[in-house]
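Summarise this fold before class:
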Amino acid sequence: MKLDEVGWQVAVASSMPPYFGAESIAPTTEAAQAVIYSSLLRYVACDPAFDSVLFFGLQDEPNLDRWQAGLIRADGTPRPSYDAVKATIAETGGNCAGRIRTWRHSTVVAGADATFRRDRRLPSRVNSWSFTGSADEDALFDAGIYRLRRGHRGARVLAESGQFDAHLTRFVRFRTRRLSPGSYVYSIRFRAEANPNRTTRLTSRPFVIYR
């Protein structure tokens, strides 16, 4: 199996010839790219399922709106990653220097996260409900506020659904409504847009509504 088209784009100043234009993404540093590329070679060498790794591309494109993940800059000078990859191959000979591992397909949503409000007791006059969430990949979500029954999740009293764009935090807001006195939790289920069978569910600590 081939690990195809791996690349971490690097920050480049548009004033450095022959680069021009403006970045379209948030790039990493040359030092970080070198560490990532070297670590990746060591990691993949210990998985017998992989035969090769393709870093894409070898040399940068000058237009910063395009691709700058090369081991060589657009002017032909080598990056630290060039020497790091060369040294890693020379040191390991492409062989595993650690523990043999087997790749397994992820069953969860990459980077799924939620920050729930920290209140543990709230008066019944409160009628605004929300929290923030994010994921490292595009994902759909179904969220709710659930009433607890004997410590277990019961009926969903408020619901919301929508989508997360990768790496962007957004609010999950429920419609305005007062909750009856009792114990509740927030809960959200993420579903990867690329594969809805990969899911992650996150649930808050219980909070109490009092009169």
